[in-house]
Design goal:
The protein is of the alpha/beta class. The chain has a single domain, classed as TIM Barrel (Alpha-Beta Barrel). The chain has an 8-stranded parallel beta sheet.
Length: 310
């Protein structure tokens, strides 16, 4: 039986061992975000989280395979950003050290590992007790089960952060409740994700990220916290990473609606400008990932778990 409340991975800053441990200690399932970390840093984060809880934890892995991208469009985007005065990185593909991270979660005996952006790799299924797969369509759900997933994380259109879709196609995206309705007959536990404040009918658990962003245990940056408190609207954009993601609307998002489809190439391109905005406390040039309609509260993670699981 899975816990009713699951912490979304929150890669790229908001995740902390303290947050994941607090969720697990409160009876939920805290996830360690492996995205953008080195394999050895992931190992350190797993051990740091375990030092704070004796309850089960999970790890989320990115499953990325190189796809053709419009290199001319990426170069033109970089040139435009450079003219606007932004410091930039070098666009390129990498698979986020997937093989090395599978080795780490196996060696560290992580009981639950979830995947995002693609089907669970065969080696992961063979080496980890329980694999969950993030899916955004019924077809992805069926393919995930065929690949060996034992739990489905159903990411609805309302979810904050990157779309977990396997092909990064432009919408439309299914609302989370519709996705639950279309997959509830598959015979496996369902974890619903996307702007939810409770476990919806037909699902076994809720996965929440935005709800935890204002917790004292979270590593959410000051400008991100400030923007969340302002109650801004959300929209889906490729501007920051080249992959569709939902965040609070800001100036950078609205001025770069034509960003090319190229992940993680654009992520690497814009990483320095986002780091500079974060350091300067500027929410207008920073990715402010958040789910639609979410209203996070500045309260301890244990209180959020209690509220979502009620």
């Amino acid at each position: 039986m899975i816990p009713r409340v699951v912490l979304a991975p929150l890669a790229g800053g908001p995740f902390t061992p303290e947050l994941a441990a607090a969720v697990s200690n409160a009876g939920g399932l805290g996830f360690v975000a492996a995205g953008y970390l080195s394999a050895e840093t992931l190992r350190e984060r797993i051990r740091a989280t375990r030092a704070l809880t004796d309850r089960p934890i999970g790890v989320n892995l990115f499953v990325l395979h190189e796809q053709p991208v419009d290199e001319a469009a990426v170069a033109a985007y970089g040139e435009r950003l450079a003219r606007e005065g932004f410091e930039l990185g070098e666009p390129h593909f990498d698979d986020d050290e997937l093989a090395a991270k599978i080795q780490v979660v196996a060696e560290e005996r992580v009981p639950v590992v979830s995947t995002t952006f693609g089907p669970p790799p065969t080696e992961l299924v063979a080496r980890v007790p329980e694999v969950w797969a993030t899916v955004t369509t019924p077809e992805e759900a069926r393919r995930a089960l065929a690949a060996g997933a034992r739990v489905l994380v159903l990411q609805g259109a309302e979810a904050g952060g990157h779309r977990g879709s396997w092909d990064d196609a432009d919408g439309p995206d299914l609302p989370v409740r519709e996705l639950v309705a279309q997959t509830r007959g598959l015979g496996v536990p369902l974890v619903a994700a996307g702007g939810l404040d409770h476990v919806p009918q037909g699902a076994d658990a809720v996965q929440a990220g935005t709800a935890f962003l204002l917790c004292p245990e979270a590593g959410t940056s000051e400008p991100h916290r400030r923007a969340l408190a302002e109650g801004r609207a959300t929209a889906v954009t490729r501007a920051f990473t080249g992959r569709r993601a939902r965040g609070l609307v800001n100036r950078f998002m609205t001025e770069h609606e034509d960003a090319p489809k190229a992940y993680p190439h654009v992520h690497h391109l814009t990483a320095p400008l986002r780091a500079a905005a974060r350091a300067a406390g500027d929410p207008e040039a920073l990715n402010l990932w958040a789910g639609a309609g979410a209203a996070p509260r500045a309260q301890p993670a244990a209180d959020v778990v209690a509220r979502l699981g009620a």
